[in-house]
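Continuing the batch. This is chain 6 of the set; chains 1 through 5 are on the previous pages. Same settings as before, nothing changed between runs. Recording input and output for traceability.
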Amino acid sequence: MVNKTNGNWEAWIVYILKGIEVTSEETLVLVKRINREVDAMTSEIKEKLPKIYSRELIDLLFYEFYTKIQYVEEGLGVSRRTSVNYLTALEREGFLVSEKLGKERIYQNKRLFDLVRYQK
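Output for chain 6:
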């Protein structure tokens, strides 16, 4: 078996640790951006849609890039009609963008999606 490190373990370890450092720093920047977006959207929803605002709703909107009626129903313990009303209002105010996929309507948190998609 050929030793590909040529006994240069220290350089290899430094290289791996540098990669971990860079990845960690990029992740920290992304997490801070997401937290700022959570705060911004929270303030905007409180202002524009105070009757539907709840911390649980914000958590649902940032749990994944997409949500759907059933997730809001179950996550907030509300009826299907209330869930539809919430998602419709959020879309009308520009917080979500919906798309019909098969028989379901999926609601995308485009701001979160774009943050992660264009993180550099």
